[in-house]
Fold this protein.
Amino acid sequence: MIDLLIEKIKKTENPAVAGLDPVIEMIPAYIKKQMFEIYGKTPEAAGAMFTEFNKAIIDAIYDLVPAVKPQIAMYECFGLAGLASYIDTVEYAKQKGLIVIGDIKRGDIASTAEAYSAHLGGSIIEGESYDIWKEDAITINPYFGTDGIAPFVDRCKKHDKGVFVLIRTSNKSSCELQDIIAEGQPLYLHVAALVKKWGGDLIGEQGYSRIGAVVGATHKEQGIALRKQLPQTFFLVPGYGAQGGIGADLKGYFDKDGLGSIVNSSRGIIAAWQKDKELAADPDLGPEFAEASRKAVIAMRRDLQFAMEG
């Protein structure tokens, strides 16, 4: 998985991942009207409009980005209809040749962790394997320690999948826990050491492990320090765009070859049409709304070029 991700980053010359995190408020009126007429104001309508919206976005950007990252919570809140949309979105992205990172942030121990790990490779039903999720990688929470991580690491080994472990998240209050000093250093550095250990025997041909790390764009100095500490750990970087991160902040997140990180933008890409005055004011707006997402990806790629120069 990690080698394929790196190959796609090289091919597109773009370390951006599009976060597919839709909410009803960002769905164009023509899609909402169509789905409400069919399903009424129901979870089924929300799921259907998310699928239609995501497909239009994917069609507009699949040749420009290496990966997409759907956030499962946006779909789960609409129950089975939402989860159906999540699965349909993943399948469509895979059809278009994209790496899919399922942003699920799961964490638990024992049989529960094993059940969550079905996101990587599927479940066994009396000897038959069935992969309902089809993600290439997922995000996970390390709070339970090795007991909570082991089932996911095992799946990475068996199925050539990947995980991105939360180390230094982009939200403001992350410091309440992640910066606590323990044995002379911040807690997030202890987590980083564990991530390095967990991924030590999963190094791919490109020199990076299938056990990656979530490192926020909003903590520039800490991100640079973590890159030095974790030279074989691939970073998934949230916090770009809407949370204030810019390309210039990320120069130290990449290695000398311009690799080592994939940078997420969600609202900045999928809601780009709402920032375009002409599109937002067009009462007859149709599928062309996704062209704004394409322009946003191109602008993001340009912004990240400086950071990739090493």
